[in-house]
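The freezer alarm interrupted the setup, so I double-checked each line after restarting. Inputs confirmed:
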Amino acid sequence: MNRVPISNGRTEIYLQSVSKYYGPNTVFRDLSFEIESGTVLAVIGPSGSGKTTLLNIIGLISPPSSGRILYIIDGKEYSDNNREINLRQYIGFSFQNPIFISSLNVTNNLIASILEETKPEQINRIKKDINCLLKKLGLNNIENRKPHRLSYGQKKRVDIARALIKRPKILILDEPTANLDRENADRVINVIEEAKDYIDIIIFSVNRDEKLMSISNKILDITKYK
Amino acid sequence: MSRTFIFLIIKSFLGNIRIQTIKTLLLSLVLIILISTQSINIILGTNLQKIALMSESVIEVVPVKGRIYSVSLDTIAIPLYKDNETIGDLIKSPFLSREDIKYIEQIPGVEKVITGNIISLEIFWGYNKCFDSYSKDSILEFYISQLTSNYNIPREEVLKNLEALSKELDRPIENISFELAKGFFTRVHNILSIDTDIANDVITVFNNIVEGQGIINKTQDILISLDMRNISYVNYSINKVAICDERVEINDWGEILDSRSNISGKTVRVKLGGILLPNYLFDGVIDRELLKHIITNRFPFSNEYVKIVYNELENKKQVAYVIVNDTALIPEVIESIKQILPSSGVTPLSQSAIISSASVKSMEAYLNTLYTSSILIFLLSFFSIEAIDFTRRKKEFGLLKIYGWKGWRIKSYYILPSVIISLLSLVIAFTVYGYLQNFLFDYLFSGIKGELPNYLYIRIRLMIKDDLTTINTLRTMFDILPILIISAIAIPLIITGFFNRKTLQEVLHHE
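Predicted 3D structure, all chains:
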């Protein structure tokens, strides 16, 4: 495998011949491409085409069946199986179907997500950031609610807030506007657009939302890798 | 461990308060049962170890006419003398002579003969000042009988006999009361020293209220005997006697708060004269050296305060325990003894041992059932709750990994609540047990089987060694208690370890 050029201070992702199989079924194969800093990548394809699987692989939730992924973060190179450093701290991930720690309220769920990077003296500032972010997403007065008291749309937006609050180098959103009404979908899109300023790479999957797709500057059609 | 992390754990614990409460209560309940059964077992086991001092097969030889003094185990609390004998005859009855003992020792199968005498013990319980005002006060024996089903104190009969005996012996009734006490006071708590002026009032107050409870005047003689189960009884007496400085010491004055004392319209001031405990082991019939050995073992710190006082019958052996090599030989040995000593009563105590063994076995079965069920309840309940919680926790585990939590943090997140639950449960269990303790011995213990207190008191000491093995097995089972507590902590650890081996995708069920 060729050595990937390193760009100091930049974040890049290189997928090299990545394939995923479930038994005899191929989800995608031999997928190679690079994602550079500033990229807003929209992964498109119909339901069941493997968008979530790809996002999970890039987001270090599941490993590829074959192939390799390289991450360059602040000029340093990490592979997807690099255990010396916890790559996950650089990645913000929002699920298609959000899950939370049920015993913690919204604020504490968000704090838990950045616990490893947070010092106790930063907590008050982070709480303010959380409130601010939740408001931007149209979530007022839900800070103290437990997850089971949130609607699906609210959960979805809290999950996006959770991915954003850690100010990751790489943001991965799995169908961020799915099942949201237009107003709330627009709020999410606005927040993602704002996030472009401080997040190096944004990757999201999208099925039908043209408006969401329009904020991307790169599109990957997963169906081409079947 | 950062403050934020601890804060999150506490929040998470409180956020699941319903499940945590159920877990805590369940664990507490099980611990209460375990602690209770263990404490009962310790009492049993401790006593049985003492009992093991006796040999495997024992025969008791009692001169029938001496029965008034040497109340045999099987005839305890039975009327004091036979109809066809006068009290005078009884007093003058022969004792086992040295020759008698020698003959018994020569019977084939007899391993050893332990001869005994009636003794009274004065235990000055670490306080030399005890009974300073002995001559000034009437010493009252304060007793409360709590025997239930099988055994009722033949109160009227005993008192009648007491009077008859008093006349026959031409001795004040108080002087002979202590010997009688050995026969029928199976649970005696305290000796109370009290002003002579009000002694009769106190006696009236106590004796007329509840059958089976009361005070007997014991002006001169004091009987203090041993009880391996003293914990509960001492507690009981402390509850009944309020001492001003909150520390109960012998010779201290206090007031009896029992409502019964109010019936007389008086506040009864009493002095704690000593702790009088049931004569649990070898009541009055024991080899002196053996007794000393037992006392030394049981109360190693009290040597200098224990005086063994033989009564005027010293050197006249009233009872002999015949230890036989083989249980099967008992009938033959009995026959031989009967031929040598035709006027003596020979009781094959091994038969009693079998009966008591059965009783203890029923208790064992009870404890086993209780113990096993408590563990089952714990396991079933705990795992049920864990199972209910499983899906949620599984996903949470995946989330924490995605958050980038370090391994020790994830483990702590699951273990600490379990530690909190375990500690809370321990505190609850011991607190509840503290309150339950008296009831346990007064109700639960005797509730196991009606005659159990009798058996424990009288017959359990005759357990043969074979029976001890089952008890030891039972005792081993109780050692599982700490294991259980550790398990409560370890289970989440195991679950954490299990999750840790899974990939995030498996944990999260994300395709």
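Quick read of the result. The longest helix of chain A spans residues 123-136.
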